[in-house]
Design a protein that fits this description.
By secondary structure, this protein is of the alpha/beta class. The protein folds into 4 domains: about 160 residues, MoaB/Mog-like domain (Molybdenum Cofactor Biosythetic Enzyme, Chain A, 3-Layer(aba) Sandwich), CATH 3.40.980; about 60 residues, Molybdopterin biosynthesis moea protein, domain 2; about 90 residues, Molybdopterin biosynthesis moea protein, domain 3 (Molybdopterin biosynthesis moeA protein, domain 3), CATH 2.170.190.11; about 70 residues, Beta Barrel (Beta-clip), CATH 2.40.340. The protein has a 6-stranded mixed beta sheet, with no helix packed on it. The chain has a 6-stranded mixed beta sheet with strand order 16-13-17-21-20-18, sandwiched between helices. The longest helix has 19 residues. Bound molecules: adenosine monophosphate and magnesium ion. The site of adenosine monophosphate (AMP) has 19 residues, from helix 3.
Length: about 400
Amino acid sequence: MTAKLLTVEEALAKVLEQITPLGSERVDLLNVLGRIIREDITATMDVPLTANSAMDGYAVKAKDLEKAATDNAVRLKVIEDLPAGYLAKSRVETGQAIRIMTGATIPEGADAVVMVEVTKKSDSDFVEVFESVKVGQHIRLRGEDLQTGDLLIKAGTKLGAAEIGVLASVQRPFVKVARRPIVAILSTGDELVEIEEPVSAGKVVNSNSYSLAALVSASGGVPIVQPIARDNEEEIRSAIQASLAADFVVSSGGVSVGDYDYVKPVLDSLGADLKFWRVSMKPGKPIAFGLLAGKPYFGLPGNTVSSMLSFLLFVKPALRKAMSCLPPWTMPIIDVTLDSNASSKGDRRTYLRANLRYQDGRFYARLAPRQGSGVSSSMLGANALVILEEGVTALKQGNQAKALIINDIF
Ligand code: AMP
Ligand code: MG
């Protein structure tokens, strides 16, 4: 009688419990895209620094234009021309205007801007205005965008173009970001050949090292790919030991209960503190997790799909926690309508590869036609996993289902 398998949530909780934050580093702003910031960013100045014009037009006193209308032009004397980046030399007095460009600081005495579109230059020194304005119209106030003391970016935020732009606005050429976790990737199997080697009957090209390395990079880590370890205790032991220089170790293959599955016995012999080695899910039931010499060790199954899915479900959230990303560390689950029938044996929660299509406010999930755990092609274009809970054996086209988003949906 085997013990009840852990659910995905229970297993993930056991993983996350063991993950502590890695260190930080200072990186220049042109190289922080996608990194996780490790400090709160507060505005140290007002942006904009001064009230300025939101339009090309004329800085005026609103009171002067009270009666201005299409059939009642008001004439103002233009006393200066003010491009962006300069300050006016004179003050706007009653009956006067300063020609002003977008972004230029509002001159003293002016309390509104009229757009150039409602004016006509009558002769060189005068402008005719055909519309009244309200006080403050077309003026961007000091600090309207960012105000000194505002919390702009919270520690744990992933830096994108907008955050990088705001960091530049508040003059932060360097920021403290989480160090990228270094992840050793170790493929095991006598049947594996390297990408450049000839492949003969019975052999399989090692593709997991490549897909897992890509997943590590996409999750913000740095992959270190180890040579293939053959299915014997000595090779697996020395490969695992060599991997411990990294922050995380991810192996693929050799974690089932086959006669040549040596990962678990080797981990045991090395004194690993294994937290679990099976999870109630399909694909990916054999998956080992524990601490080895203080480092998180993930023994993923060898099947191409299983290794990617178990990475997404367990390793990616762990990397996110290690980088101090703001929670949630897991990917979002959304409601979808099935575009195809879905089935499962019902004995374990099943994750089916699907491509999401968005139409009329809803997501539709089209399942890959073949869902075997070794069918790599089912992962091509898969941006979601449709979830069939334990006990559910079939869902029909048109039914609602839950789906985990695993990739960009556009
Ligand atoms: P295992 O988990 O070692 O029993 O492997 C399960 C299946 O995954 C076998 O058919 C292996 O040939 C395949 N497999 C294992 N490792 C890899 C790999 N690195 N690349 C591609 N397929 C693999
Ligand atoms: Mg194997």
